[in-house]
Prior knowledge:
The chain has 249 residues and is mainly beta. It folds into two domains: 9-27 and 114-248, Jelly Rolls (Sandwich), CATH 2.60.120.1050; 32-110, no CATH class. The chain has two helices and 15 strands. Strand 7 (134-136) and strand 8 form a beta hairpin. The chain is elongated and about 70 Å long.
Amino acid sequence: MRKVRIASLASLLALSIAILATFNGHDQARASTGLVSGWNNIAYLGPTASPDQALASLGNGYSAVYRWNAVEKQYEVFSPDAPGFANSITELRTGDSIWIHLTSASAELNVGALTGNVAVAASTFQPASDLAMYEKGFNELRPVSDDEHSQRYFAPVTLPDGVTITSLTAHFAGSGIRVRLDYTPLSNGNDPSQVFILAEANSTNGSSPQTASAYAHTVDNTQNVYFLVVDLTNGEDSRLRGVSIAYGN
Length: 249
């Protein structure tokens, strides 16, 4: 049995803000990447595709692409002007680190719509009350009492700027379970009227896993903080096993 102390919603918001501040500098996956004349070292963020398809938005504005092969200890290359046998890059994969030689003055590498998921493990949730009594397993959270202090838990969520949240999927076992994705302005202290619901899954609406559509909302980490709220109201029979949040452009 574990007992963890966390004071209030304000404590959760402080934790969420700290996590967002930590990741805000490098979680900005974008649907386009700005390039300048000459060599550009970037991460390719589009779907897996042949180089000419993946870089189609550059037109004739580039002369070569290089990618380091860590196994062979050498660079692979693709040039739109080279014969096919001379090109060793046959596809670009999501997340590839590449060098692009841009021949135009500047360009935007447009990789299309950004979609993805953020998974939140049950073990990341913390109780709203310092009197909560609960247990955590490998990926399961459950109260060991059905008293009001042991019913509500929070977890911060980090989402890329500019995406639109599309749905929430909750994995659980038992009954008496409600999972919400909320946001509040960074300026809010502990005012519940400034907390807004984006999506909600409830065990009364069906079995696990349960997917709920989200209200249309564009993520803005400069103005808001995002977090999950889970209510486990049926004691040891209420067990959370993880949440996934889907988003797109």
